[in-house]
């Protein structure tokens, strides 16, 4: 980690001041991927690492926060699911532990925003449309992460090059650009647009500190830029994944009928060793908290376990590999420190070349 006094002033932004970090680079809270090792690697390199607590139990989240704190004294964030049954307990714990940032894939409720801010926690939801940014800004969030269609697919199809200027024109809070960023040229471009920094998921997934097994990382590195698809066939919600044989099959059959979806869920349950009881409980919870058909619930209830089996256990036959589109242009596995150092140097060089 470099001395903050030597950092190029062109890379000091509203985001670095807000988060208390050296560099305007955020590692997103990728489920099953962003564990303590990746978060601390990012934090110690001067970026903002975000812990993926949305795929953890409350006790697992508590343990992970303790581990991060034991390995770094730098600021970090925790990603939360607004619809988690224990969300209030999680919010209270972040405040008690003085976690710097709470990030959300879904918009947090206004009362939740106020509680976190009153407790000294910076609130950063992800948005995929101008109107969403305007709404959460009215609720008092501190910043927004603006994700274009090149990212994980959850926030819509509008590319970052069109979405980012729209959001920047709409709100007067720091905007972090996400979707398609992987190097220093992208950071320089985002800052030139007016963003306060960039956020990257896939680029940090493909680092030495990422907990993803090496054999799975190899699949990512071998994927061409055309090798991904935004699919709704996994759980009814759009997400970008690598186009594996399993995904191709799901894309052909889809979720048109409940019996077929239920059979798919039961088949994948056997692959992931999920009990029928756990599957039904998760399904009832999702049906209650989200506007899903029973056909979508049948797969959605098992979707998290499908991803975990592939991304954590390395079971490539399950075939669920979430990704951003930049996977096709990433070709190495640096440490977080090497990656951030390289991005900062590239961004500075681009500014120098433009201003020469």
Task: Tag the structure with descriptive keywords.
single chain, alpha/beta, TIM Barrel, two-stranded antiparallel ribbon, 10 strands, 47% helix
Structural account:
The protein is an alpha/beta fold. It has 15 helices and ten strands. It is globular, with a radius of gyration of 20 Å. It starts with 13 loop residues before the first helix and ends with a helix. The relative contact order is 0.14. Residues 255-261 have low confidence and may be disordered.
Largest sheet: 8 strands, parallel, barrel
How helical, in percent, are the residues?
40-55%
Structural class: alpha/beta
Report the CATH architecture of the largest domain.
Alpha-Beta Barrel
Rounded to the nearest angstrom, the radius of gyration is: 20 Å
State the low-pLDDT regions, or none.
255-261
Q: According to CATH, what is the topology of the largest domain?
A: TIM Barrel
Topology:
Blueprint: H1 14-19, E1 25-27, H2 36-44, E2 48-52, H3 58-71, E3 77-80, H4 87-96, E4 101-104, H5 110-118, E5 122-127, H6 130-138, E6 144-147, H7 160-170, E7 175-178, H8 184-193, E8 197-200, H9 202-205, H10 214-221, E9 228-231, E10 239-242, H11 245-253, H12 258-272, H13 276-289, H14 294-311, H15 336-355
Parallel strand pairs: 1-2, 1-8, 2-3, 3-4, 4-5, 5-6, 6-7, 7-8
Antiparallel strand pairs: 9-10
Helix pairs in contact: 2-3, 6-7, 8-15, 12-14, 13-14
